[in-house]
Amino acid sequence: MIGTGFIYTVAGLTFAAFALLSAIDGTSGKRFGNAAFYALIAISFLFGSRIGDIGNGVLVLGLVAIAGSGAMGRGAMGPGAMDRGARATTCPEERQAEATRRGGRLFLPALVIPVTALAGTLLFRAVPTLVDPKQATLVALTFGVLIALAIGYAWFRPQPATPYAEGVRLMDSIGWAAVLPQMLASLGAVFALAGVGQVVGGIAGHAIPDGSLFGAVLVYALGMTLFTMIMGNAFAAFPVMAAAIGVPLLIRHYGGDPAVVAAVGMLAGFCGTLMTPMAANFNLVPAALLDLKDRNAVIRAQIPTALPLLAFNIGLLYWFGFH
Description:
Blueprint: H1 4-23, H2 31-68, H3 92-102, H4 108-126, H5 136-156, H6 162-174, H7 180-193, H8 196-207, H9 213-231, H10 234-253, H11 258-273, H12 280-289, H13 297-322
Helix pairs in contact: 1-2, 1-6, 4-5, 7-10, 8-10, 9-10, 9-11, 9-13, 10-11, 11-13
């Protein structure tokens, strides 16, 4: 049965290729730091289930040490760069000429990924013996990436290493922040198990006026937003705020609709996602893709939308969750 093992193998081999390309990049003075960082990620995907909790913990500490020591950086690249020990990719002028010639058709390989993910999810769930039903969407997404990659090779006929070289270019632009979503999601689970939600609930109890439903709603929504900004992931913030205010106060004490409290609480958290660099996959990746000089430009553009949306969600939760 196809499941997470397939997904982790594809991801691990990809990062192994990133590590190799970084190691032979003679244009970067920090190539060995980059290579070590990507190699550790590759090991975590390929052998994480075999090295145990202590091994994975040491691996994470290694990632933190590399990132915190400033050992990572960007290298130069250009056409034929592999001959000089760097990466095999195209220069900006060549990419511009290719974009002008092919136009909007360039987006077709990218569109293959979501289409395959949707179709594969429906198909795999109908054939549960083929793919783990719990991982159907992720398996379909992985197949979509592989199919899009195959189409890109057949259509553009690049050098074999070019797609991976472009992947390294993007990863180097993002840096260590690329692993923030995984780290912060894990941190949210740790916080929940450590009882942080109960501690936050005790502190919040002093800030909420007695008998004030709106005060409880306000603190819950703002808490989801702030914790998401700190942790970079609304899914990581939700266990904490649900244990602190959502379940004991809004649902049990005030009789709120659990579906509304949970759903709108997540929407409030997503408002925090729009306003934090900790949500690297949403806010730093686009800046890197667009080569923006200001890495926080996406966040600055989103704040005027996030704040009114947060206010709307607070009202939505108050009126539809309890009335």
